[in-house]
């Protein structure tokens, strides 16, 4: 009976979001409370459960996501992301533009949220299409595949960061493993698959004319290419460095390890990156502090709903824990003859196909899979990546990314399914296979 309640709760959550179009945060909140009642949690304890669930997940998460949004916003507003894209195209040349676009999407996608990166880079795609008379899907899909992969696998994106906190994984190691997993997923889902799509016809729009792209930067001096790269990738460099350093310094040097632990905290890393970006992309480019703070304020508005959705998923997780269902569920799932990482991918992929949102799918699956991960002893960093891979599967008509790609590129639904949906499936499956290979090594 308990498992039927859990399944019905997940079904109600999916139907609420997809069919009734209820906001994901409100859906999480309402369904979590109804589930708590159905599972026998006393009414007097439910408000406390809600507060505890939100506090548990947001305590270690809010700073990272908010600071990450601020960094991505100033990188976009300053023109640094466009600089990175332009340099990549120059380096790879016309013959290997697909690879250049994939690498550009990967570099730009690490600090930028998916929606920001998509809107920022699509005009660049069309400016190249107009210049070299190439297929927009052929050129653009590798870049967007890279953006999608970074969104699903790599901190500081909301879903991977939230999963790291939920599973008690290591942010630095998840980042390193995520980079390893991302490479084959991008190559196969991007340039290799993109070569089969050269004949797909796309629409045209004056919105994508290159000259429109630079108007917003006229009042300020543009950052150099080096400055753009260093600022955008500073969080990655710091996280990787501070993950490796403890292995190079003697354990007897307690003070050095204490400093590394402090500065290696993801929130501190992001704060350092924001301070650096404030000067490198703001003050030194002629912007006033008021203008920069306005950019940061807009960034927080952009991700407010993401934060609420994550908070709502924390409530559902807390209900699962306090009702005791998590333990029973873990014991039952452990008896299934399937690897925990494959099970995690499968559950997440199914929810993604029903809900549409990769973030909602990942966090919903994590709420159910947490006890399984704890009892099975599977590497939590790999569990984060397996769920991340599953969250990219089955992108179709209920996914906002599907419609963004269709409308921006002027495609039919059939061609969008043939290009975008297949690409998302490829990066998801390749990502899972890469995670499984890693599990045999680490």
UniProtKB/TrEMBL annotation:
Key words of the record: Cell membrane, Membrane, Transmembrane, Transmembrane helix, Transport
Intracellular or extracellular location(s): Cell membrane
Record protein name field: Gnt-I system high-affinity gluconate transporter
Transmembrane segments: 26-44, 56-76, 96-129, 136-154, 174-193, 229-249, 261-283, 303-320, 340-370, 382-405, 425-441
Protein family (similarity comment): Belongs to the GntP permease family.
Topology with respect to the bilayer: Multi-pass membrane protein
Leader peptide range in chain numbering: none
Originating organism: Sphingobacterium psychroaquaticum
Lineage: Bacteria, Pseudomonadati, Bacteroidota, Sphingobacteriia, Sphingobacteriales
Principal localisation: membrane
Keyword NADP attached: no
One GO location term (cellular component): plasma membrane
Molecular function, one GO term: gluconate transmembrane transporter activity
């Amino acid at each position: 009976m308990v498992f039927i309640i859990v399944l019905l709760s997940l079904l109600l959550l999916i139907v609420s979001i997809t069919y009734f179009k209820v906001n994901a945060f409100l859906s999480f909140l309402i369904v979590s409370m109804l589930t708590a009642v159905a599972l026998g949690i006393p009414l007097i304890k439910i408000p406390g459960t809600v507060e505890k669930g939100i506090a548990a997940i947001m305590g270690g998460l809010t700073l990272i996501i908010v600071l990450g949004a601020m960094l991505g916003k100033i990188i976009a507003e300053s023109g640094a992301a466009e600089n990175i894209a332009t340099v990549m195209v120059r380096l790879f040349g016309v013959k290997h533009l697909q690879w250049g676009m994939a690498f550009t999407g990967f570099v730009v996608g690490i600090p930028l949220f998916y929606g920001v990166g998509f809107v920022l880079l699509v005009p660049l795609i069309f400016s190249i299409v107009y210049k070299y008379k190439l297929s927009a899907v052929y050129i653009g899909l590798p870049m967007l595949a890279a953006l999608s992969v970074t969104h699903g696998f790599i901190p500081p994106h909301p879903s991977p960061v939230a999963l790291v906190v939920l599973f008690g994984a290591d942010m630095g190691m998840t980042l390193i493993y995520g980079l390893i997993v991302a490479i084959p997923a991008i190559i196969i889902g991007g340039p290799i698959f993109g070569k089969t799509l050269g004949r797909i016809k796309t629409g045209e729009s004056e919105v994508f004319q290159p000259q429109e792209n630079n108007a917003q930067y006229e009042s300020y001096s543009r950052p150099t290419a080096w400055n753009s790269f260093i600022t955008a990738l500073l969080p990655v460099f710091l996280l990787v460095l501070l993950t490796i350093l403890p292995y190079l310094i003697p354990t007897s040097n307690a003070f050095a390890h204490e400093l590394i632990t402090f500065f290696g905290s993801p929130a501190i890393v992001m704060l350092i990156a924001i301070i650096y970006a404030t000067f490198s992309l703001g003050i030194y480019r002629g912007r006033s502090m008021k203008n920069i703070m306005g950019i940061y304020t807009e960034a927080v508005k952009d991700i407010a709903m993401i934060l609420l959705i994550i908070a709502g998923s924390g409530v559902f997780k807390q209900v699962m824990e306090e009702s005791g269902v998590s333990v029973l569920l873990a014991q039952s799932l452990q008896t299934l003859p399937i690897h925990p990482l494959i099970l995690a991918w499968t559950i997440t992929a199914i929810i993604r196909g029903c809900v549409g949102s990769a973030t909602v799918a990942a966090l919903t699956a994590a709420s159910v899979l947490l006890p399984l991960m704890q009892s099975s002893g599977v590497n939590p960093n790999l569990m984060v990546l397996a769920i991340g891979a599953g969250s990219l599967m089955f992108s179709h008509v209920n996914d906002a990314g599907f419609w963004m790609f269709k409308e921006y590129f002027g495609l039919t639904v059939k061609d969008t399914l043939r290009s975008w949906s297949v690409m998302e499936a490829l990066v998801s499956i390749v990502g899972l296979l890469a995670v499984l290979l890693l599990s045999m090594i680490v």
